[in-house]
Specification:
Elements: E1 8-12, H1 19-32, E2 40-44, H2 50-56, E3 62-66, H3 83-88, E4 93-96, H4 99-104, H5 109-121, E5 125-130, H6 134-138, H7 142-151, E6 162-165, H8 179-196, H9 199-204, E7 207-210, H10 215-222, E8 229-232, H11 239-251
Parallel strand pairs: 1-2, 1-8, 2-3, 3-4, 4-5, 5-6, 6-7, 7-8
The structure holds phosphoenolpyruvate.
The site of phosphoenolpyruvate has 13 residues, from strand 8.
């Protein structure tokens, strides 16, 4: 029988929703979630929503995360947020290196590595995002790019983390990777994590797929042996779609 890691289903809300909408979403989610969902569920709202959501989601079935953090503990960094501030707001997770941060804020691989280290130092679990652009894939550079992104972050005795493979061409485009293409990359990532970090840890770490995941394509993706869950943008804004994906992922557990 296939060894299964606990599925992880995460929603990245990006710069969407106002406080009232977030409140309504939380009520819907908790009212319709199974008592024991058989999946780890994480929501990444934007910073101003965090404290309200921490109160609304005072429930062990759902965790909260920040969409980014600064590597420093505090200081003169206007517009940034620190690990201790995220913890204080009720977070236990944080996204590091989402492709929109890499593109919009020129985040380098090395900076993503420093952010992941800071997260671990403060007791946040980093969800580290990697992925190639359409141009890089067309140029046959997918594995080279992923290798560069991984080796800037990971080293031996790295703490607890989750990895998300998010091909940039699949994010928000409606063009999800096929299950076979995603599986090929996930197997490569797991193999490289075994070499960079530790074989045992690589065996158990969750590697999520992200890029136009919807209820219609989630079952085929989660059926792949190295796809352990999802990082979801658009579909996570709708509680019905998010719940449907949670159920599909949990059914594969
Ligand atoms: C994302 O932003 O991480 C993402 C995967 O977005 P979408 O699901 O909308 O493609």
């Amino acid at each position: 029988m296939r060894m299964r890691r606990q599925p992880v289903v995460a929603g990245n809300w990006k710069m969407h929703k106002l406080r009232r909408e977030a409140q309504e979403f939380c009520q819907e989610l908790l009212a319709n979630l199974d008592e024991e969902p058989q999946a780890s569920i994480i929501l990444y709202p934007s910073f101003p929503l965090l404290t309200d959501m921490a109160a609304a989601l005072d429930d062990p079935r759902v965790s909260l995360g920040g969409q980014d953090l600064h590597p420093a503990d505090s200081g003169a960094h206007t517009g940034d947020v620190s690990g201790p501030q995220l913890i204080d707001a009720g977070c236990s997770w944080v996204l590091c290196g989402h492709s929109e941060r890499r593109a919009d804020h020129a985040e380098s691989d090395a900076l993503v590595g420093r952010k992941a280290e800071a997260a671990l130092q403060h007791g946040l679990t980093p969800m580290i995002c990697v992925g190639e652009t359409a141009a890089q894939r067309e140029a046959g550079q997918t594995f080279k790019v992923l290798e560069r992104q991984l080796s800037a972050v990971f080293s031996q005795e790295f703490g607890e983390f989750t990895l998300a493979y998010e091909p940039v061409w699949a994010i928000g485009s409606g063009l999800s990777a096929t299950p076979e293409l995603a599986q090929e990359v996930h197997a490569f990532l797991r193999q490289r994590l075994a070499e960079l970090v530790d074989p045992e840890q690589a065996n158990w770490v969750s590697i999520l797929y992200g890029g136009s995941v919807k209820p219609e394509n989630a079952a085929a993706l989660i059926a792949q042996p190295d796809i352990d869950g999802f990082l979801i943008g658009g579909a996570s804004l709708d509680p019905d779609k998010f719940l449907a994906i949670i159920r599909l992922a949990a059914a594969a557990a």
